[in-house]
Design brief:
alpha/beta; Aspartate Aminotransferase, domain 2; Aspartate Aminotransferase, domain 1; 2 domains; seven-stranded mixed sheet; four-stranded mixed sheet; 13 strands; 43% helix
Length: 384
Amino acid sequence: MDGKHMLMIPGPTPVPEGVLLAQAKHPIGHRSSEFGELISEVNSNLKWLHQTESDVLTLTASGTGAMEAAIINFLSPGDRVLCGCNGKFGDRWAEMSEAFGLQVERVSAEWGQSLDPDAFGALLDADTNRTIKAVIVTHSETSTGVLNDLEAINRYVKNHGRCLIIVDAVTSVGAIDIPIDEWELDVVASGSQKGYMIPPGLGFVAVGPKAWDAYKTATIPKFYFDLAPYRKSAAKDSTPFTPPINLMYGLQAALQMMRAEGLSNIFARHERVTRAAREAVKAMGLPLFAPDEAASRAVTAVEPATVEAERVRSVMKKQFDIALAGGQNQLKGRIFRIGHLGFVSDRDLLTCIAALEATLHELGHENMTPGVGVAAATRVFSMS
């Protein structure tokens, strides 16, 4: 049936009707006073969402573009950086850093396991000459469904004193509590098609005072992603370049929805849906790829043993018009991923689990009592 497609992937995520309708407005001039008022409201709400009084700058870019800006504005060729690598995106930031001439040292963990904060601590403590200029870490590693202990890693960075922490929070902003000012995080990047509940096209970079000090001496070439013009324009309720006006309408509406729900309720909803997804998967006799103690709130990765991961995705799409994500890189064909990020409710998760039960039955998965997954998810919801 047309119009019944259901996104249960970690991005793009479902978009609320109110946001879609806001994006349908007729564009206005991006140098008009009306658009300036929109920018003023949006920037205020972005600071609220990021729990910061510092700059949160909006780029016309994907999350990767936001991360590129986060790296090139505060570092110089030859700088020594530590990069956490336990999935596709950690690896991407290491490769990106090398492309810009940085001296990269990878702090690695097996895919499906979280990064060891003490591994960062050992390198930072040994850096008596303070040559490490930045630690680059992915908070929620979407490729594996793993949440890294950002708070613990950041404590080691703060003890070091000199180096910055640069965070990929693409699938954690708007889903997980990241008190930027309380933790004194220096640079935090994210993207619109995740917890923000709007389509792809906008990237966000939150920048603290220590990072702006580093900007003064950073020499990696930049132009479109030079954050100083964005900061100057934001102070005047403007943008340095032409923005996607209709996406900005959508962002305005989405942030209004988020403020109405409240940060604590947003975080609790993502926690609840994550627990329900994981308990349902366990009840259906399917192995989870990441352990409970390191579970992302954005996506649950499943490594089935009795059925093929890609067959699960295929049947879910053809029979129920529900999109699940597949594995990436060496995990392609090994896992499937259930996204539960952004505009996702208890009802959405129950619908997905019921369809997954039917799919597993069709594919011959026998280690399952009918209805056990839905029952497990329902128990989580009833206790919340």
